[in-house]
Amino acid sequence: MNILLESRSRDRPYWLVAVFLLAGAFVALAVVDGRYALIFQVLVQGLWITVTVAVIAFALAASLGLLLALASRARWVWLRQCARFYIEVVRGLPALVILLYVTFVGTPAALAVYQWAFGAWIANGLLPDILVRDVSNTARGIIALALAYSAFLAEVFRAGLESVGRDQIEAAQVLGLSRWLCFRLVIWPQALRRILPVLGNDFIAMVKDSSLVSVLGVNDITQLGKLHASSSFMTVETYNVVAVLYLMLTISLSLVLRRLERHMGNKYR
After folding, report:
1. CA distance 29 to 241
2. Measuring CA to CA, how many Å separate 73 from each of 12, 37, 82, 159, 193?
């Protein structure tokens, strides 16, 4: 009994109490020092951009990562090799390099290919004439982050899919389930439950790495913080608020993801 009580005592979220105390101290500081309240009002305008970039980029990365994971386990050798080539190359490049490459090299090259391949259709008005300047830096940043994270998520999905025992797959096939039904009803629920913590960590990492789009001039939290710090010379105060905003996002997401993990654990127990 004493051991059980000690275990529960260790599991209490004392760290969360410390976070709330830190948040309370920041609120008190904002009330006493009006500069913090003003900076917060300025930077919170970039909160929507940060969340939008992170959510869309992660959704695209997860979709592409799942396709890559399935391709890496396909029966065709050439498809497995193509998926492995993409995963290894992208994982070997820094996210910032991918961001700059997609923005200044990939986007112009892709649109040049689009103009060359569909020039006749564009001339007849069947397809829109898209120029480089028509693609916003926000869209380029989202595509770059999605490509950068898709390779890592592909490995996460592959590990989750391979963790399901072969005997369960064979049992499902004996029952007459098709490959799609076997994947949807047997493999995917178990794989998702096992990789959910890793996916949650990657999503939190995506929220933080979304700050990279600030190098393109996208007005997210980091970019607005840089602009405000350079114009007001309140560097310490501004970056304190930037740090607090990112902590608010990441800690809130951590709590939500923990609850989701417990829910899915109870659901498939």
Report:
1. 11
2. 41, 53, 11, 11, 20
* Count of domains observed in the chain: 1
The domain in which residue 43 lies consists of 17-267
Work out the pLDDT band at 22, boundaries 50, 70, 90: confident
Kindly report the pTM of this predicted structure: 0.85
Which letter does DSSP use for residue 134 in this model? G
Cα 163–Cα 169–Cα 172 angle in degrees, nearest 5: 145
Question: DSSP class of residue 215?
Answer: G
Residue 2 belongs to a domain: no
- Tell me: the pLDDT tens digits for 120-155? 888 888 888 888 888 899 999 999 999 999 999 999
| Number of neighbouring beta carbons within 10 Å of residue 140 | 21
Q: How far apart are CA 182 and CA 120, in angstroms?
A: 44
* CATH number of the CATH domain containing 163: 1.10.3720.10
Phi/psi for 165 (5° steps) reads -60, 140
> Does the residue 12 lie in any domain?
no
Residue 224 contacts residue 45 (beta carbons within 8 Å): yes
